Amino acid sequence: MTYQDEDAFRTWCAHVLPVTQPGVINLHGLPPLLAAEIQWGLNTHAQVEQRSTWDLNGIKNLINHCWRGRFISLTDLDGEGHQGLTGKQFHSMVRQICWETVNALRCVYYSPSDTKDAGFLETDHFGRRFKNAQSHFDITAVPQRWLRDLLWDHLTEWLRSPQCPRTRGPFDQMRRAAVELGVFLENDAPTAGHDPTVLRREHAEQFVADQRHRARHSLPSLGMVLVDGRSPTVTDLSCQFVFNGARKLLYSAITTGHAEGLGIDTGFLTVIPFGGAGLKQRSRNPFTDDVARVLTDETNLRRLEELDLNDRGLRDIWETIVATGRRCSEVVGLRLDCIGRYRGLAMLWHDQTKVGNYNEGIRVPEPIYHRLDARRTKTLQLFEQRYGRVPASAERPRLALFPSRIRNPNGQQPISYGHFNQRFKTWIDGLDLGGGYVAHQARHTLATNLLRAGATLTHIRRYLGQLSERMAEHYVKITNSDLEDVLNTVWVAGPGAPNPGELLSGDTTPMDRDTALALTLGLSRRSTPADGGFCTFQPVVDGGACPWKLDCENCDNFVLSGADLLYWRRKAEQWRSIAENAPNDATADYLHTVFEPTAQAIKGLEQALAALGILDEALTLDLRRPQDYFHRTWSTAFRARDLAALQTPDDTTGQP
User: Fold this and answer.
1) What is the Cα–Cα distance from 438 to 435, expressed in whole angstroms?
2) Nearest of 422, 416, 407, 397 to residue 331 by alpha carbon
3) Which pairs from 303-310 meet CB under 8 Å and 24+ separation?
4) Does the global pTM surpass 0.85?
């Protein structure tokens, strides 16, 4: 290469961009540190399984921007280096690549002790990474260095502990408590709270009073700032989190010995009260008939489809939630092969991660099955368009049915719940229903409909995927009388019947038409309470005398109900004790033989209750002691006015 003016040539070389070569990233002319950072960032990004897409033009634009600005390191772009970058698409990619690389470089440039001095921590230093969160956790909003150090030590102790929180929520709550306390001390405490030795009990009491005052009058927070720049409103729930977090943080200074080293007054560390274990909140109501009709109207559902700009299946998700009552996250996270037919029945397989139930199967209506099947076809077409091939058999089980467009290089990442919730809220606001409705209320609605259709609380709990009836009570209202009604309708044959313990009622096993008709005729008869069960002999029910002299245990008209299980268990323990104290083995065998029909009846009753899922409830509820009904103290009664008319002398009080 020849030139006439060397200075002009050097100036031209310093300003002209390198020649673009397809598939080649040119790092010549960059400072060694900057070139090494870009190479390291590309290598690290390629090792992340769920990563964003860095196109080649975006990487080249980043290199050109750094070359023009004469930057030494990518960290220089955090401040003034972003000037000149507009909102154009390739400039947005430049910011994204730079931001992700710098975030990853902090773990290289900073040691854990360095992050403490700088006012942040990196969870990657401790091998932790919360779901949908970065490694960087900033705590510089805490004004006082001593309080920020306490917070850093407390959070890192959590990260080192085997009981580390699964989500970042507890970390955010602890940070909020420290920020609220620090900003209040900066405004009202001596030396702006930077000298911990001058802090006393009254300063903490003033902080507690200020928080309660703000919660009572719905005033904004002192130190917290939202993404849009607004200050959040202080509520009773936020006060609870702040008090609990600040109390735990300050108490940790005592247990770890930091309080003695800082010289903090013990009264200041211990006066913040316990905020409480939780606030009672009203459960959401089911959809009214009018609202449910609007939310399932075809015209309105098409409006929801119009909000789905990238066709990711928002309407499919909503209709599946309505029809099955699944949690929103369970439907959003469905996999490609989540549906199938088994003996002609349409089934949906899903993970109930909230309660630890995986690959649970439920039946779904045919329209929902066809809709999900059509969505599966669209997802496969998107996969073929992106990769130019069909997914392998090993890939299909991990593919998402509703795949995300970002950070999803292999098709396994579903759209986020936040994305669905945002579009759903926009749709609800456009319908002008006159209230704030959420998708989760469809779950309440289905639970209420199941209860009205005759389903028991146990059946609803199992279908909805709840761990206990107490959790299911958030969706349906039920009292103990409902359980008593169920127990009283579970009948099995008594010890004197040909088949002791045979189920006489309930729906635990399928039966043919003739059996059902016979059962209906048998249970249509009236009954009367007996010693340990019910008597179905109609002359006795009508008030007649028992021809068998109340020998209920040997009578085939005697039935056991679920309400009598504890009574008969006590009876079995009594007979077992008598047999164990028998003088010889022959007597013990005779007693066991005599009680064998009763034992079979008890076993059959337990099996019937277990099949209905109410055995545990029957064992905890002693609904009645039937033998007490026949005691003379219960059958002897007096009129209240006659008792009131009696006058007992003072000297004979309490005497018959």
Assistant:
1) 10
2) 416
3) 303/427, 303/430, 303/431, 304/423, 304/424, 304/427, 307/423, 307/426, 307/427, 308/423, 310/405
4) no
